[in-house]
Design brief:
about 425 residues; alpha/beta; UDP-n-acetylglucosamine1-carboxyvinyl-transferase, Chain; 2 domains; four-stranded mixed beta sheet; 14 helices; about 30% helix; elongated; binds uridine-diphosphate-2(N-acetylglucosaminyl) butyric acid
Length: about 425
């Protein structure tokens, strides 16, 4: 196993190019199951999670070839309908094959994912929605065994809470159902609009893109896809926070500022100058801050898009640990997403957990000190990297395979910004 060494205390500067979004790539790869033929996806990040997903696709008889950042996927010889526990347990998003396999083959057997480091994360909405479409789902031996004779039947599906992969799974199921499906209180994250664009390009009829009400008029079959993955808004947000946390300045490129409305407002509220073009975001300190930079404390509360993303909560907490006052960070999406707190405390952060909120007493920009810490999940890990970059001295982050699930070329990109960071065998 490898660990990440960070020699902190150097302001980051420069420009970093953002990769394609992990959480868009996974459902778009799954959607290639819907129609036989050769599909092309562009801007696909090369991550542990995309590789795991492609392994799952290979298990189903789907071949792929990488050409630069594009993936050519041939799903003509689809010959399986099972997502085994060995793959699902390492990546919950494997459940995304459920909808498209049912649409194409009328059957699917997918392992129940179980809990994970950030919460219980059930898939009851996915199952409820499929049953509404006429699918019979049996839960046996740790698997969802689902089947339907003939096409699914359009229906009305209501989500108690907007679910990102739930909306994606049911979209992929409903596009080839007989009749019209209406989804209410659907998630409207940018990754869902990306999936809708791909499905529409394949011949699907979907209304309501970027809203919480989706109307899907089923079509008997779909054609092949040619679609680019949107930029990774969470990766972009992570680098912006890292630049600011180290007292540095810089620009993220090849991103979409419209996908990060809440983070950019929160950075502005903290006193940072944020400038946007169509595809870049720059952060810099106000002129009079030279020599005595300080960050204002800003409360955040995680919410479905366009609210503040839960996937940037841990990183913002690392940032607020370096602010000048006290703020409250509230997590409303996942019940156990404060695993980074104990690790940040080891670096000197002043954080107290109170139910679903954390009270963060900022220590000032150079207020953290390097320490050995442990990565617990993907986003928690990136908050430790940010804290390590800002802290004085050396931070050693173990279990960095979590980071490799979602950040493409992390070490190279940080080095390009002037960070002193490298991997070592544990
Ligand atoms: N929920 C249920 N039942 C369900 C589905 C969801 O109760 O059947 C609850 C969840 O427990 C949670 C809330 O609904 O409280 C929202 O969860 P959601 O279903 O939206 O999460 P997800 O689809 O499993 C995706 C991302 C996560 C991201 C969340 C929230 C992918 C592959 N994963 O998960 O990304 O945190 O949406 O935005 O898109 C990450 O990239 O690190 C990551 C965890």
């Amino acid at each position: 196993m490898e660990k990440l060494i960070v020699e902190g205390g150097r302001p980051l500067h420069g420009t970093v190019r953002i990769s394609g979004a992990k959480n868009a790539a996974l459902p778009l790869i799954a959607a290639t199951l819907l129609a036989p033929g050769q599909h092309r996806l562009g801007n696909v990040p090369d991550l542990r999670d995309t590789r795991t997903f492609l392994k799952l696709m290979e298990n189903l008889g789907v071949r792929h070839e990488r050409q630069g950042d594009a993936l050519l996927i041939d799903s003509t010889n689809l010959n399986g309908s099972e997502a085994p526990y060995e793959l699902v347990k390492t990546m919950r998003a494997s459940v995304l094959v459920l909808g498209p396999l049912l649409a194409r083959l009328g059957r699917a057997k997918v392992s129940l994912p179980g809990g994970c480091a950030i919460g219980a994360r059930p898939i009851n909405f996915h199952i409820m929605g499929l049953e509404k479409l006429g699918v019979t789902c049996r839960l046996e031996h740790g698997y969802v065994d689902a089947e339907i004779a003939g096409r699914m039947q359009g229906s009305t599906i209501y989500f108690d809470i907007p679910s990102v992969t739930g909306t994606e799974n049911l979209l992929m199921a409903a596009v080839m159902a007989e009749g019209t499906t209406i989804m209410k209180n659907a998630a409207r994250e940018p990754e869902i609009a990306n999936l809708i664009d791909m499905l529409t390009g394949m011949g699907a009829d979907i209304e309501g893109r970027n809203t919480d009400k989706l109307t899907i008029r089923g079509v008997p079959q779909l054609g092949t896809a040619d679609c680019d993955i949107i930029p990774d808004r969470i990766e972009a947000g992570t680098y912006l926070i890292a630049l600011v946390a180290t007292g540095g300045e810089g620009t993220v490129t090849h991103c979409n500022p419209a996908h990060l409305p809440s983070l950019l407002e929160k950075l502005r509220a903290a006193g940072i100058i944020v400038e946007e073009t169509e595809t870049t975001i720059s952060v810099r300190w106000p002129k009079d801050a030279a020599g005595q930079k300080s960050l204002k404390s800003v409360d955040i509360k995680t919410m479905p898009f366009p609210g503040y993303p839960t996937d940037l909560q841990a990183q913002f907490m690392a940032l607020m640990s370096l602010s000048s006052d006290i703020c409250v960070i509230t997590e409303t999406i996942f019940e156990n997403r404060f695993m980074h707190v104990a690790e940040l405390q080891r670096m000197g952060a002043g954080i107290r957990i109170d139910g679903h909120s954390c009270v963060v007493s900022g220590r000032g920009l150079q207020g953290l000190s390097g320490a050995p810490v442990m990565a617990t999940d993907l986003r928690a890990s990136s908050s430790l990297v940010i804290a390590g970059l800002a802290a004085t001295g050396r931070t050693e982050i173990s279990r960095i395979y979590h980071l490799e699930r979602g950040y493409e070329n992390l070490v190279e990109k940080l080095t390009g910004l002037g960070a002193s960071v490298w991997k070592e065998e544990e």
